[in-house]
Amino acid sequence: MLLDQIADKWSVLILAALCDGPLRFNAVRRRLDGITQKALTQALRRLERNGIVERRVVTDAPIAVEYSISPLGRSLEEPFRVINAWTHRHLPEVEQARAAFDERRGA
Amino acid sequence: MLLDQIADKWSVLILAALCDGPLRFNAVRRRLDGITQKALTQALRRLERNGIVERRVVTDAPIAVEYSISPLGRSLEEPFRVINAWTHRHLPEVEQARAAFDERRGA
DNA sequence: CAGAATCCTCAAAGATACTG
DNA sequence: CAGTATCTTTGAGGATTCTG
Questions:
Q1: Overall fold of domain B2-75
Q2: How many angstroms separate the CA of residue A26 from the nearest CA in chain B?
Q3: Contact between chains at A72 and B82 (C-beta distance less than 8 A)
Q4: Distance between CA B74 and CA B26 in Å, rounded?
């Protein structure tokens, strides 16, 4: 699926962070506990490439790079909402299924 | 996300295959071109563990194992539909963004 | 500050062979 | 038929260093 590349762990968190407004590289990083600079760069690149976020270089000194959600990125709100709704509604069932499965095979 | 484990490449295709009715292991396999038996086993196990598919051993000779979608699995229809709708609606934009990005950096 | 480059490790993917 | 077991290979991810 196309959404795989947008809905992986870090990308979702990045979009959530950018949801309230633009942030600079290290500002995003500070909000995402545990992400490495490499992983953040990669995720941002892919989001940018797919048109989900916009990258804007502020050529002041010191240099700054600002990331923000694009209109296309905002259009993801509905899918995300539906997915979250499904999760909230069915998570107990899933956990119960997992417990039952693990039980069957002596966990 | 929880959906990651359900909405990866093979799982989606497996669910699509099972959508119209139960199938045996090798029947699923034949529908999924290129999947290895190991990957299929793993995907089916995880789907089963999460309660998305049901596994039923038919103890005839030769042995048969039938997989089918559970009610919980069917409840995924709406999220999938919304995701597909988003993809259909916005894929051109994404592709355009990708082309522009790749252009910018000499592809 | 924002990121590219490098090295390393370890886990997942693939191929092959075997079995109840 | 429906897997499990084993071995190998590949590559994603982390840590570190360097730079415009």
A1: Arc Repressor Mutant, subunit A (1.10.10)
A2: 23
A3: no
A4: 22
**Token couple for A53:** 């976020």
Residue spans of the domains in chain A: they are: 2-75
What tens digit of pLDDT does each residue of A46-86 get? 999 999 999 999 987 788 999 999 999 999 999 999 999 99
HSE, CB side, 13 Å, CA atoms: give it for residue B15: 23
Reported confidence tier of residue B107, pLDDT bands at 50, 70, 90: low
Give every CB contact of residue A66 below 8 A, 6+ residues apart in sequence: A22, A23, A24, A55, A56, A57, A58
Q: How far apart are CA A55 and CA A42, in angstroms?
A: 13
In strand D, which positions have an atom below 7 A from any protein CB? 1-6, 13-17, 20
Q: How many Cα neighbours within 13 Å face the side chain of A7?
A: 21
